[in-house]
Structure formats: C-alpha cells, structure tokens
From TrEMBL:
GO biological process, one term: trehalose biosynthetic process
Part of the intact protein present: 1 to 480 of 739
A GO MF term: trehalose-phosphatase activity
Full protein name: Trehalose 6-phosphate synthase/phosphatase
Family: Belongs to the glycosyltransferase 20 family. In the C-terminal section; belongs to the trehalose phosphatase family.
GO CC annotations on file: cytosol
C-alpha cells in the first residue's frame, strides 16, 4: 500500500496569530479546494494508505512549533512544512515565480524581470522541497507536484530517487514557444529539463500540451510522438487534464439556509435591478481595467439601463507587495470612482466595489443571486470562478466568458468575448441582460451536465490512474 504525497508551494492553511492565540485559517484557491475535497471524500478508487501534503509555511519556524504544541495544526492528513529563509523566499516567490514566470507564461513579456539572483533563489527553494521529499519518501509512494513555483522540482527529485513515481500539473498556461523562448537559454533548458523529471505532466488545455511539446523539441531537441516525449532514455507523457470543480458542493451550498438568507437580503436590497457580478484575485491577467472600461461604455451606449442594474465588482487581495500589483490596484480604484462619479444619482451607484475576502457562503450567495457573471481575463490557465458560477446557478444566470481562458474550450454555451474588444463585451452584456429565461436555462443545463459528469474527483483519479499507466509503460520500456 502506498501513500499519496501532494506538493505545492503553500500548505493549504496559514496560521493566524491575532490576540496571542494561534488559530488555523484554510487558504482559498482552486488547488486547495480541489485536493481537500478529494482528501475528505469517501469514494476514492485509488486506495492510498496515507496522504501527506508538503508546502511552505508562511510564518517563522518557531510559530510552527508553537502551533503544533497548541494543537492548532489540522491532523486529517500528514503535513510536512518546508522552511525557507525570508530573503530567499522573497526572491523565489515575488521574484522569479511572480515577476518572471507568471507574466511570461500569461503573455505579458513587457512585465518580465530577468534577474539571475531570483533564478538562483528559485533553484534553492526547489532544492529544499526535493530534500524534504527525499527525507520522508518510502518506496511505493506516489508524488504529485503542483504548479509554476516548482518547475525544477521533478528533475531534482528524480536525481535523488531515480525510480520514484512522480506526476506534475501546471495550473497556468504553458505559452507558445515564441514567448517561452524569450527566457535566457540556460533557464529555459533547466525549466524544461526540470519538468521532464516527471513521469506524467498535466495541463488544462490541448494548446498548452502542444506548446510544451514544441518547446521541448525546439529548446532541448527532444523527440516526441503524439503526447509521448523521449528524453534522456526516459519516456514522459504530456496530457490534457482540465481541472474540474466539486460540482455537488456548489449545488448543495445554494440550498442551505445560510446562503439563501444572504441571497434574499441581496435581492431585497437590489429589488428591480439586474445584478452583474465578478470576482478575481487582484492581477493584471484578469483584465479588470478592460472590464471596467467596457462597463463604462455600456452605460454610455445604453443609458436606458441606468438605475436598473448594479455591478458587484469583487477583487480579492493578492501579491499586493509587488509594485506592478500596487499600481494596478490604484488604477482600478481610480476607474471605479470615475464611473461612480460620472453615472451615480442620489439613489443609485452603478458599481459596488469590494477589496477583501469573502466567506464561502457569501461567495455562493453572490453566484446564485447574480443575473450575469462577467468573467473576462486577458489570460487564465482555466478559471474556476466561471465553472463555480455555472454550478451554483439554479433558476437563472448568464455567463459572459473571455475566450482567452482555459475554461472557454469547455463552456461553449457561455457568451464568449474577446476582453480587449470593448464593443464585443458591451454587446454581450446587452444580450445577457435581455436573454429570455428559457435560453438561460438551456445554456446553463448544457454546461451543468458537463461539469457534473467530470467533477474534481474524476480529475484527480484520472490523473493518478494515468500516472500509474505512464510509470508502467516506462518500466516495460526499461525491460525491453
Ligand atoms: C489558478 C490559475 C486555474 C476566490 N475568491 C474567494 C474565493 N475564491 C476561490 C474561487 C476559486 C478560486 O478561489 C480562484 O480560482 P481561479 O481559477 O478563478 O483563479 P486563480 O486563483 O488565478 O487560480 C487558474 C486555477 O489555478 C486552478 O488550476 O483555474 O487559471 O490562475 O475556487 O472560488 N473563495 C472564497 N472567498 C473568496 O473571497 N471562499
């Protein structure tokens, strides 16, 4: 019997130290909710003897000890913290991860910083993770590494434990080679070599798989046939695994008294008004300024909608120590004031802007109360908010979705727009606000059927099963 070891940059919780008492706060975010649903679920076909999560802990090592002694660390599964010094973590996380890889992989080359020191810190933190895996590894364990902060890790682990079963999943886009090649040659090679240490590499869309294979061919002269890559006498598979949501959880949540209570008070407050809704982390990839411009143009073009709608525009604090993010926040807030200043009346404001975290119940209430969800990133690996909105809708709801998200290839019944084409977004808003109820229902039903059939448990089981198959294929290859 083997154990499943999940590896991600952050552990799925953080410690709150307010009032001298230690308490645990579960992190929000797609990866955490996906894996936690699986860990807590009962119908797991892949039968693991134990489950362990490795990740960094966002507080000093003494706090970890104190939290352990206070019994504040959850014990539903094993937890193995990785500790990195503050400066090195800063260069790894805000530096290479979020000021080099993030903008480059999301097609914002002009924002990319090329700092050798940051790459060195990135390598050093990936090494700390490799050492942690080596320290706890037992033969037969299955290791699943997540996301762009740990691209070098698979090869570092493979060097230490050559026959390990190791999968890797990338949650953000893998860009076309024309973008990827902008990175210095040595980093580019190390990153591809790092990822190829896995037995199976998963991506959200077919395009990302193809971009990766193309980059391996161009930068490493690797050989491939369909989705199989032959590299340094190993076989590595690159496959499509579009991340899914816990569909039932959202459908059930909207029927609870707590969520219904919040929804009713929202509907009471905005009686006779259509509710447009969006929620995103503060990030330039989410296209927030473009979205506000389109909303402003909508109010100019269709003045008859004034006082008949409200746009609840939620931004979740994120990375707001990085200068680009601080600048964006300022410019979003200026735009919100401009629109409200320009169009408000004594009784009405078009935009209700919030910059804070919401509870799960509040999020679900907003999903189910919203007549229109306006999800228009400039780039997004997948975008779970779009899927969650569809799952939480019952009697009504129209999804307007950027064609530049991974989710667009699955949610074909959404009104798809190009987020930089302001009039395209304006027309979609008009169409959504006027859409007859039967058409809303028909579009939602098509998407809901697909999302319920392939939920987050399928996503995880599918990945783990294909990982075992990839490993077996490799072993057969070694024997021959
Ligand atoms: C990355 C990729 C990919 C958000 N605000 C609150 C809250 N959330 C939850 C949502 C959703 C998740 O966070 C956000 O997921 P997204 O997919 O929309 O976006 P990223 O954070 O950028 O995620 C993305 C994803 O990884 C998974 O692979 O889809 O492309 O960029 O689950 O519900 N949850 C609560 N309060 C909030 O205020 N409770």
């Amino acid at each position: 019997m083997s154990r499943l070891i999940i590896v991600s940059n952050r552990l799925p919780f953080s410690i709150d130290r307010s009032n001298d008492t230690l308490s645990v706060r579960q992190s929000s975010g797609g990866l955490v909710s996906a894996i936690k649903s699986y860990f807590e679920g009962e119908n797991q076909t892949a039968d693991f003897q134990g489950k362990i999560w490795i990740g960094t802990f966002d507080a000093p090592e003494e706090d970890w000890q104190a939290a352990l002694e206070a019994g504040a660390i959850p014990t539903d599964f094993g937890i193995e913290p990785v500790f990195a010094g503050r400066d090195i973590y800063e260069a790894f996380y805000n530096g290479f991860s979020n000021s080099t890889l993030w903008p480059l992989f999301h097609y914002f080359p002009s924002l990319v910083e090329y700092e050798q020191e940051n790459f060195d810190a990135y390598l050093a933190v990936n090494r700390l993770f490799a050492e942690k895996i080596q320290a706890i590894y037992q033969p037969g364990d299955v290791v699943w590494v997540h996301d762009y902060q740990l691209l070098l890790l698979p090869a570092l682990v493979r060097q230490l434990i050559p026959d390990i079963t190791l999968g890797f999943f990338l949650h953000i886009p893998f860009p076309s080679y024309e973008i990827f090649r902008m990175m210095p040659t040595d980093w580019k090679r190390q990153i591809l070599h790092g990822m190829l240490g896995a037995d199976l590499i998963g991506f959200h869309t077919h395009d990302y798989v193809q971009h990766f294979i193309q980059s391996v061919k161009m930068a490493l002269k690797g050989d491939s046939q369909f989705n199989t890559i032959y590299y340094e006498s190993r076989i590595v598979r690159a496959e499509l695994f579009p991340i899914a949501i816990d569909f039932k959880k959202f459908q059930q949540a909207v029927t609870t008294p707590q969520v219904q209570g919040i929804r009713e008070s929202l509907e009471e407050r905005f009686r006779d008004k259509k509710i447009i809704f969006s929620v995103d982390r503060l990030d330039y990839t989410k296209g927030l300024n473009y979205r506000l411009n389109a909303f402003e143009r909508f109010l100019e073009t269709y003045p008859e909608w004034k006082e008949k709608l409200v746009f609840i525009f939620n931004v979740i604090p994120s990375r707001d120590v990085i200068p680009t993010y601080i600048d964006r926040k300022r410019s979003i807030e200026e735009k919100v004031s401009t629109i409200n200043g320009r169009f408000s009346t004594l009784d009405w404001q078009p935009l209700l802007y919030r910059y804070n975290h919401m509870s799960f119940e509040e999020l679900c209430a907003l999903y189910s109360a919203a007549d229109v969800a306006l999800i228009t990133p400039l780039r997004d690996g997948m975008n779970l908010v779009a899927k969650e909105y569809v799952a939480a809708c019952s009697d009504k709801g129209v999804l307007i979705l950027s064609e530049l998200t991974g989710a667009a290839s699955e949610l074909s019944e959404a009104l798809q727009v190009n987020p930089t084409d302001i009039m395209d977004v304006v027309q979609a808003l008009e169409q959504a606000l006027l859409m007859p109820a039967n058409e809303q229902g028909r579009r939602l039903a098509g998407m809901q059927q697909r999302l319920s059939r392939y939920d987050v448990n399928h996503w995880i089981e599918d990945f783990l099963q294909q990982l075992q198959e990839a490993k077996q294929e490799q072993q057969r290859n070694e024997i021959n």
